[in-house]
Amino acid sequence: MKNKILVSACLMGFKVRYNGTEKARLNTVLKQWQQEQRLVIHCPELAAGLPTPRASAEILGSDGYQVMQNNAKVIENTGNDVTAHYQLAAWLALRTALDSNCIVALLTDKSPTCGSQYIYDGNFSGVTKQGEGVATTLLRQHGIKVFSENQLDELIGWMENRDKENTIL
Ligand code: SF4
């Protein structure tokens, strides 16, 4: 069986972002993987019951790891504490990945949920910092490798190697 990939729904053109937009990165390889039914398209925030559109949210002065440890909060730009929703989103992303035999994920960077290289700094001022969102934290803790949309070439190379290993086995 070919390895599967969990993919942020907004990267596949679904308008599920907080502001009702998408962030499509439909390159040739992604389309091929989609045709081969290797993509598991998922939006953790929607799965957790958050609506679209929704208020933008950021991790307050910390990162996804600390949110999942209950040491930090996710706050909307209205001041509303949505930490529990985002923790649930992370667990649902992990559940989906495990249930679907995903060994890797391609997630939208800078999101408090899907970010894997950068997240916003919690001041709602457009400033980013190195860090990961809640779903990325949980996926990585469970051995699932996470790439951002800016690392597509790395992901493609990584998948080629894994497919070769499967062929040899
Ligand atoms: S939670 Fe992830 S998949 Fe859903 S809109 Fe945000 S970045 Fe995209």
TrEMBL record:
Superkingdom, natural source: Bacteria
One Pfam family matching this protein: 2-thiour_desulf
InterPro entries registered for this protein in UniProt: 2-thiour_desulf
Protein's UniProt name: DUF523 domain-containing protein
